[in-house]
Amino acid sequence: MKRSRSPEKGSIFPIKVAELKKILQDQFNNNPDLSFSIYEKKDKKLAVFFIAYLVESEKIENFLLEPLLSKEIPWANTSIKNEIPLNGPEEVVNLKNILANLLLGKVYVYIEQEQTAIAYMLSKKEKRSLQQSETESLVLGPKIGFTESMVTNLNIVRWNIRSEDLVLERFMLGKREPREVRIIYLHSIANSDDVQTMRQRLTELDIDFVEDSAILMQYIEDSSSTIFPQFLSTELPDRFSYSINKGKIGVLVENSPTAIIAPTSFFSYFESTEDLYMRWNVGTFLRGLRFISFLLSTLLTPMYVAAATFHYEIIPPTLLVNLGLSRAAVPFPPILEALFLELMIELLRESGARLPTKVGQTIGIVGGVVVGTAAVQAGITSNVLIIFVALSALASFTAPNYLMGTTARIIRFPMIILAGFLGIIGILFGACFLVIHLLKLTSLGRPYLSPIYPLEMKDFNKVLFRLPNQFQYKRFKSYRPKDLIRYPKQKAKKKKDIDE
Amino acid sequence: MDININIKKNLQIRAFYLFFVIASIQLGIGILGVSRLIYLEVQQDAWISIVIAFFYVSLIIMVMLLILKQYENADIYGIQVDIFGKWIGKLFGTFFIFHFALSFFSILITYIEVIKVFIFPTVNDYILSFMLLCLVIYSVLGGIRVIIGVCVIFFFLSHWLLILLIQPALQMELTHLQPVFVTPITDLLKGARVTSYTFMGFEILFLIYPFILNKNKAKLPIFLGLGWTTFLLLLTTILVIGYFSFDQIERREWVLLGLFKIQSFAFIERFDYIVVAEWMMVVIPSLILLMWGITYGTKRLYQVPQRATLYTIAILCFIGSLFTNEHFQIQKVINWSSEYGFWLVYVYPLLLLPIVLIKKKWQKRKDGDHHVH
């Protein structure tokens, strides 16, 4: 045997086929899924090995084994590479590399006495078909949601943003089970500092494996002690590509149907892509409605508790009579009454979420109507409070982002307790604390309350309300995009007189 | 101790935030009762006193800016050490820290008293004082950027209260303001002197000036802030005089809060409860800025970590607030604070300016001589 060149460092080839089989079987703990077949022809031995269920077996049979065994292709690396009708043959020598890539669905061909093995990517992944997103539903606009398959998701993103500017950086995260993670951004728009921060946070992450994007999000968030989400998670490709186009950074994780978007501000949790599909004035109304409902859902019940416990004077006399009548039969102080009802609503919501859809609906009706009415008749709560609690629960579901809706519901509990002990002063204390807390938060190093602080008046029409498109010619300035201008400013011609 | 300071890039602030800083620190507890105090001195000509005070404060601010401009990037602590030497300079710096601490304490206990009088007559002092100090500590821990953020956001969150003044404005009796220009000038000056406690706070400029990114644009926001405070003061004073009679004003300690009682909506009868609670958002920014002044000053002068000062002062104020809960004690603290502040803030810069100018000129001449020889 003549060696044309010395073997590369770390190479295990050339090796006897039987030896290779033994090494691999040892590495995989004699796993029956490791398929290792040996073929012999004219004193030459050829091994084909892969992991069953990870690869497309029809392709292996039709395009690899069929030509090799039945046609007269000489068994040598060069002829195999040239004559096998499969895409992207790769020569590998390193055992570690082979082991890692076997798990990603590569198929290897090795001819005894050759210096390298040849690998083909033939992975196959079972996936569900594209479906409408369940957690974020839209009335207008594209309906499909991301799936668990990275290939499908990348396909959707590529079709949404067809630009050579789109960068999809690939990372393998997790020591034990490496999993593919992609950072996605537009190179000429996204702020490079932010991209670098995200890159750094991902590369410095030293964990065994990433279960889901929601967990990855918790690993790389700015502050882990806060109740507010700092990265936006979405199942909607249109929202994802809209944010990427604004200059934000997206992250996709293999096996996870939710994408991460960063950096975000507090106000972006209240925008929905639907606001953009609607007319600007309608969109403004809807966005304002969501801000108000966030306030309602956190403050309404505490206000009731404060007024009913300490400040009867605040309530106008006519209302006070009604309130007094409905509270006359209730033996508990308002704080207990409110906490009891809020707890009930939370129980209904939680049981509704856990149960199958059909049973869930029934539970909603039974819980809402029957228990609610019964509670009033039994004299446990007052009518007025039921209205308030139901209203604030409804309001909390208007947040387009599920994480923020949950946050709003949870904030309510400490607020009720503060209101029960210190009345309106307690509520204001809680509110001040929350505002200061929001001020201290950052998302990917960017202030959470922008554009209010740091004050950027020009961003208000993208965040707090919307203006007609001729005023939307700039991107969101607070995140310092590389390219601020979306399109040149367009001015409509003004009529000088009525009939022209 | 360095006279000029290098501020890191991430701590610098844009000049227009000074508007919020000045307006937030001046609007605090003083505006609640100052209309009555001026009115008792000069009756219907109270607004003239406020205008006089405005011009005097403008003069002081010009003087302060002139002093600050003599240096590259210095604050009052550095300037005093440069002028008076290490020991006396530090002593004068301590006077400023003491002034901030006294203002801080007076605002804290006054607001607690307002809450007790208007909402909870029986509540324990220590709960309210603990809550307020918690908020102060929590935001000062965030550093200068968070502090200014609090000023900006609470400014927006508290100014909706002005809407509630529309109703009393409509019911105002303009004849209460007539005849004008009847008070002798000495009384007018006395009236202007009364506003000193309310206008106080702009001396924070002496500390915050080095943090400003674009110093050449600082003047406008400062005077806009001062102008806004003056406007609100004028507005509320005119409303108070126009709405209440002499006896009514005399009887009300915080006469402004009385004005908020008039407005009522279909679902809220008495707004003064809400206003007193909401006033927390007016008080907190001034408390925070003053506390920052204390912690930053001790760090500059004595190299004490800001965290340590923050907790110490908070604990001291907490203990102090437990023992000053009688009305006359609180009035005494306010009087001390306003007397002490008057000399330090309204008189001292006028004395400091010529000394700084002379020293700088002398230094320049000396440097010039140096070059020649």
Q: Which structural class do the helices and strands of chain A define?
A: alpha+beta
Strand segment tally of chain B: 0
**What number of domains of chain A?**
3
- Our measurement of the CA-to-CA distance between the termini of chain A, rounded to an integer number of angstroms, reads 95 Å
Quaternary state of the chains: heterodimer
Poorly predicted spans of chain B = none
Query: Mean of residue pLDDT of chain B?
Result: 92
Largest interface: A-B, 28 and 37 residues
Helix content of chain A: 40-55%
Strand content of chain A: 5-15%
The shape of chain B is globular
Average pLDDT number of chain A: 88
Number of strands of chain A: 12
N-to-C SSE series of chain A?
Answer: HEEHHEHEEHEEHHEHEEHHHHHHHEEH
The top level CATH class name of chain B = Mainly Alpha
Tell me what you see in this structure:
The complex is a heterodimer of chains A (500) and B (373). Chain A is an alpha+beta fold and 500 residues long. Chain A has three domains: 105 residues, no CATH class; 115 residues, no CATH class; 158 residues, no CATH class. Helix content of chain A is 45%, strand content 12%. Chain A is built from 16 helices and twelve strands. In chain A, the strands form three sheets. Chain A has a five-stranded antiparallel sheet with strand order 1-2-4-5-3, covered by helices on one side. In chain A, strand 11 and strand 12 form a beta hairpin. The radius of gyration of chain A is 31 Å and the shape is elongated. The termini of chain A are far apart. The model of chain B has no long low-confidence stretch (mean pLDDT 92). The two termini of chain B are 31 Å apart. With 373 residues, chain B is mainly α. Helices cover 73% and strands 0% of the residues of chain B. Chain B has a single domain, classed as Up-down Bundle (Amino acid/polyamine transporter I), CATH 1.20.1740.10. At the A-B interface, helix 15 of A face helix 6, helix 7, helix 15 and helix 16 of B.
